Amino acid sequence: MVSFITVLLIFSVLSAGASHPLSYEQNDDENGPPDIDPPIPGRIGRFDGTEGDFVSFEIIDDGISDHFLDDGPEIFEKIVIEDLGMYRNRDIGHRYEIKGNGVEIQIYDSSTPLIKVDVEPIESEREVSFKLGDMEILDDRRGQSEIGPFQMEFQGYSGSLMSVDHEDLPAEADGEYINYTIQDRKTFIFRMERNDFEEEMIEFIRDGISQAKVGGEYRIVSDDDTGYQQMAISYRDLDIQANMKGENTLEMMVSSETLGTEGTILVLEISSTVMDISTQEDVRIDFNEEKASLAENYDDLEGSDEPSYLVEVGEEDAYIFVNVPHFSTNTITIQPFVEIPEEFLGSLIYYIPAAAASIGIVISGLIYRKHSKKQ
Question: Which domain holds residue 328?
Answer without folding.
Answer: 1-17+207-339
